[in-house]
Amino acid sequence: MSKYLLDKFLFTVDRDHALTERYREDPAELVAWWEAEMANRVLNCIAAEDSTWLSFTDAERAALVAHDHVALFEMGAHPFLTLTLWIAMFERDFDEPLGMQLDYARQLAHVTQPYPDITT
Amino acid sequence: MAQLVAVLATTHHPFYYRTSQLPPEEAPPFAAEWVSKVETYRETLTRARPDVLVMVGSDHFHQLWLDNMPQFLVGNAPVYDGNWENEVREFGMPKLLLKGHPELSSYMLREGIDRGFDLAFSNELRIDHSVTCPIFTVRPDADLPIVPIYTNIFAPPLPRPERFVQLGQTIREIIDAWPSHLRVAVIGTGHLSLELGGPRQFGPTGPDPEFDAQAVDWIARGDIDGVLKNVTLDSLHAPGNATHGFMDFMLMMGVAGYHAADHVDSLSLFHTMEAYFTWYPNPHLIDGLGDGLGDGLDLGARA
Fold first, then answer.
1. pLDDT at B249 over 50
2. Of the candidates B126, B71, B68, which has an alpha carbon nearest to the alpha carbon of residue B98?
3. Cα distance from B154 to chain A (closest Cα, Å)?
C-alpha cells in the first residue's frame, strides 16, 4: 500500500492542466509515464535528487488506469484529491449541475463507516 | 496596545463568489437570501473599522503538501497572491492580491513560539479559498493587510481539537499584547458537517443537520467546555468525512473566549450549512455599541 504515492499522483496531475487532459484521454499512457518519470521526483528538487524507492502496487496502478475512483477510495487515497481531479476530468460530461458529483457519490453508496483510513 | 475590535468565524463556501455575480434571471433560488445574509454579515466587520486582518484558514493541498506538512503555519510576507488554478477552474474564483503585515506576522511568530506553539512560517505564500472566501464575503475591496494563519485539518495525523482552542486563545493573548495602535480583526473559516469525495457528498442539505444545529449552538453561546467535551478527532468522522474543518471554528471560539456571539446567522444550502458569527470583544470600541443604545444593526440572536 502506498497511499502517499496515490495522493502524490492525484496532487500533481490535478494541478497541471496538460497532465489532467492526458489522464482523461489516455490513462494507461499517463500512469506509465508518471510512474517512470514523476513518482520519485522530490517536488521542488532537480532530477539528481530523485528518491529511489517509490512505486505503485499492481492494484493501485490498475485502479488509476481504470479511472476507478471507488477503488481509490477503498485504498485510502485522499478523497478530496480524487474528487477535485475527477471534477476537472469528468464534470464536462454531465448536463445537470452537480450531475458528476452525484453520480460519483452513488457509486460509493455501498460504503459504510468507518471509511478507510487516509492517514499517510 | 493593539485593539481587538472583532472576531469573525464563518464557513467558506467557494461557490458564493460565482453565485453572487449571477444576474437574477440566472441565479439559483437560494441566491438572494444568501447574498442578503452575507451583506448583513459584512456590515459586522465594516462597523468595527479594522486596520489589519488576522485570517485563519486551511490550505487545501495547494502549497502545503505531504512531503513537508506543517500543523500550524503563519504567513510572513509583504504580499500574498490569492487563489489557485484549480480554484479558478472549479469555482470561477478570480485571482487576487493582498497586502501582508510583516510586523504583526513576525510578532505572531516570535510570541507564538515563546508561548508554546512551534509555528512554521512561509515567506512566499499563495493563499487559497479558505482565506479568500471571507475576503469576497466580508471585505470585497481587499484593501486591508492580512496575516494568514494556516491549520492542518486535512492531512492526518491532525492536532487534537483542544490544541485548536489553545491556539485561538494564544492568538488572542498575542494580539492583546501587541504594542501597536492598530485595530485588529480576526477572521477564521471552517466547516460544519461536510462530506467531500464520499457517498454523502452534495446532498440536499449538509450530511448531518443535527450536528450542524448543535455546532451552531455551541459557537453562538461560546460554549468552549461543551464543544471540547463532545468533539474528538474520532467523533468528527461521523458527521461527514471533511468535518474536521470544524476545528477551525473551535480555534475561533478560543479567540473569542467564553462569550456569546453578537451576531449569529446560518443558511441551510444543498451540500452544507452556511454559518456566520461575530463577536465584539471590546464593545466600547464599536460605534453605537459601547453606550448600549445600538445603532439599528440587527445583531442576531444573542444567546
1. yes
2. B126
3. 9
For A64-81, what is the mean pLDDT? Answer: 98
ipTM of the complex: 0.96
Average of per-residue pLDDT values in chain B: 95
Contact status of A75 with chain B (Cβ, < 8 Å):
no
Which residue's entry shows cell 505531504? B66
- On whether the B3-285 domain is CATH 3.40.50.300, my answer is no
Q: Return residues 228-257 of B near A (CB < 8 Å).
A: 237-238, 241-242
In this complex, the residue of B60, B66, B202 whose CB is nearest that of residue A7 is B66
Give domain status of residue A13, yes or no. Answer: yes
Is the minimum CB–CB distance between A4 and chain B shorter than 8 Å? yes
Task: Look at residue B295 in the predicted model and tell me its pLDDT.
Answer: 43
Here the cell at position A81 is 484529491
Q: What is the pLDDT of residue A1?
A: 63
CA gap B74, B123 in Å, rounded: 9
Give me the number of domains chain A comprises.
Answer: 1
Work out how many CB contacts closer than 8 A connect A with B.
Answer: 74
**Average pLDDT along chain A:** 97
- Read off the C-alpha cell for A59: 492494484
